[in-house]
Amino acid sequence: MGQKMLLKSLVSLILILGVAVAVPAKEKRVHRHGDLSDHAHDDTTGFQYDHEAFLGKEEAKTFDQLTPEESKEKLGKIVDLIDTDKDGFVSHAELHQWIKHRQRRYIEENVMKHWKEYDQNKDGKIGWEEYKNTTYGYYLDEEFDDVEDKSSYKAMLTRDERRFRSADRDGDGVATKDEFTAFLHPEEYDHMKAVVIQETVEDIDKNRDGKISMDEYIGDMFTPEKGESEPDWVLTEKKHFSEFRDLNKDGFLDNHEVAEWILPGEIDHTDNEAKHLIHETDTDKDERITKEEILANWNMFVGSQATNYGEDLTRRHDEL
Q: What contacts 87, CB < 8 A, 6 or more positions away?
């Protein structure tokens, strides 16, 4: 019964995604990595951006409840973790990797939640058969006969298997934790980009000709009610389709053009933040930082009750 409810929820989600809603395509389809913090990156007014970038948003809040001494002590332990080669220095590569790890924490938590559900034999890996049987087992036994929308379930199974095979880089039929992360979050992995593009085309390409027309592109975002006129943003999106998305001007989006649309090249915010923190704290300018240099500038990396109180005072003064 649990599988039945799970599958119905999954199909409902697909149907919801397939229904056109009045949301611009750039909000619905484009895969962007968000900034590292909701705060402005302005060190002259405070270091909240750096705190959230370095620790993650939730962990930064816990440091704001600590005394300065407690914050510095915890920071020292974090520095020991960041220095993976134990040479006494934090390099750009080590700091960059740490910040990426903190920013990906929500993904890792999501993967762990599913990992426990699917790794049924507890061997630290998830085989395709394990995933398939856990997700579709009830319906496989029934050959999908007890399903209102049989074609949707079969399409889901086909799509899941293709995505799993792409994530399973060594082709052994079982997924390690990293491979399972690629399966659940393909937009995070370069080798999964082709799958993300293919799934996007399949979602929008209603006549199954392998490309996206302007009508399909707009239909993915907006379906007017009877007698309803198109809002201005739809006209703008039509212009974007013709002038910017349809690069070869043939009236359609092919896979390459879809890739340019949904997977734009981006600034690596984590790389920039690692460079920024090193630049600001590397007193001897050897392009790496010691634990002493970090602790001497501890309030740039982490907050405390004192820094939080100081920022509150500044904010109140500005409001006055």
A: none
pTM score, whole prediction: 0.66
Dihedral sign for Cα 26, 29, 30, 34, please.
positive
The structure tokens 């019964």 sit at 1
**For residues 299 and 77, what is the distance between their CA atoms, to the nearest angstrom?**
15
What local confidence, expressed as pLDDT, does residue 83 receive? Answer: 97
77-84 contacts at long range (C-beta below 8 A, 24 or more positions apart) = 79/291, 79/294, 79/295, 80/291, 83/291
Ramachandran region, residue 300 (left: φ > 0; alpha: ψ -120 to 50; beta: rest): alpha
Closest CA to 183 of 153, 159, 200, 155: 159
pLDDT for 257 equals: 96
Q: How many helices (H) and strands (E) does the chain have?
A: 18, 6
Regions in the chain scoring below 70 on pLDDT: 1-28, 31-34, 138-150, 266, 307-320
Q: DSSP of 96-135, one letter per residue?
A: HHHHHHHHTHHHHHHHHHHHHHH-TT-SS-EEHHHHHHHH
Q: Nearest 5°: phi and psi at 227?
A: 85, 0
CA 14 centroid distance within chain: 19
Opening angle at CA 118, ends 123 and 194, nearest 5: 105
Contact 214, 238 (CB under 8 A): yes
What kind and span of H or E run contains 33? Answer: none
Look at residue 316 in the predicted model and tell me its pLDDT.
38
- Calculate the alpha carbon distances from 47 to 102, 155, 263, 280, 320 in Å: 17, 48, 31, 12, 22
Report the 3 state secondary structure along 137-189. Answer: HHHHHHCCCCCCCHHHHHHHHHHHHHHHHHHCCCCCCEECHHHHHHHHCHHHC
The residues with which 174 forms a beta bridge, in sequence order, are: 127
- pLDDT, position 32: 62
Yes or no: say if 128 and 161 are a contact pair by the CB < 8 Å rule.
Answer: yes
Token reading at 307? 């820094």
